[in-house]
Amino acid sequence: MICIEIVYAQPQHSIVKTLRLPPASSIADALAAAVADPDFAAVDLSQAAVGIFGKVARRDQPLKDGDRVEIYRPLLEEPKLARRRRLSKAGRS
Description:
Elements: E1 2-9, E2 14-21, H1 27-35, E3 49-52, E4 55-56, E5 68-72, H2 79-92
């Protein structure tokens, strides 16, 4: 068995779970195991982007012992636009 973490960060708190999976498991297998956890009930695991240790990854990517699968939230605003909006707001002060 391999031991991995699956993580979903929200603005106010994070969900972090440790899973034990068979050796040839993929990210998709980890997500399927997370669906059964009530903490992940409100998370759209079918459409969310995922990654391992901060790097976007495909769902068929095999997992290694100790990997941290991250489930990414959709962006609320394009980062460049948000930065411009903050700068323009600061310039008006």
